[in-house]
Amino acid sequence: ILCVFVFFFLFKKLNMNKTEMGSSTSGNCSSISTTGLQNSGSESDLRQRDLIDERKRKRKQSNRESARRSRMRKQKHMDDLTAQVTHLQKENNQIIAGIAVTTQHYVTTEAENSILRAQLSELNHRLNSLNEIVDFVESSSSAGGFGMETDCSGGGGGGFYDGVMNSLNLGFYNLPIMASVSTAGDVFNC
Fold it and tell me: What is the pLDDT of residues 122-136, one digit of tens each?
């Protein structure tokens, strides 16, 4: 482009000088300079086309590089998302396993609590029965007894516990506690 301006400037100056010299010489020079102008115009057109082609080529190359970088960014983003999905799935599986273990502990503990509640109920029932017996014995001994011998020192029976306990026929007196794991399993069908 600079060459075109320099050439144009020289051509303009040359034309001004020719007009000053006279008309006879200007005809010959103008034909020569017109031919030179046509040649230089063709060269400048070629140079301009070459510059335009070079710019297009550079722009295409730049666009290709930009597209390649964009594809690489997208691929990296996809890889990052895939890794994140894998990590979250692993974490989710660990949480599910933890929930399963906790649920199993809960069911086991609830079964044990059920057994303990049943044993507590049975022990409270026995304690109430024994307290009733003790109250009965204390009230009977302060009232003078049942007409039986209350002296416990005699060997061979006849004491209060032998007479009263056998006459009341307390069948639960020496029974074991009956609650078991199977009872808890029946209560919580899990």
Answer: 999 999 999 999 999
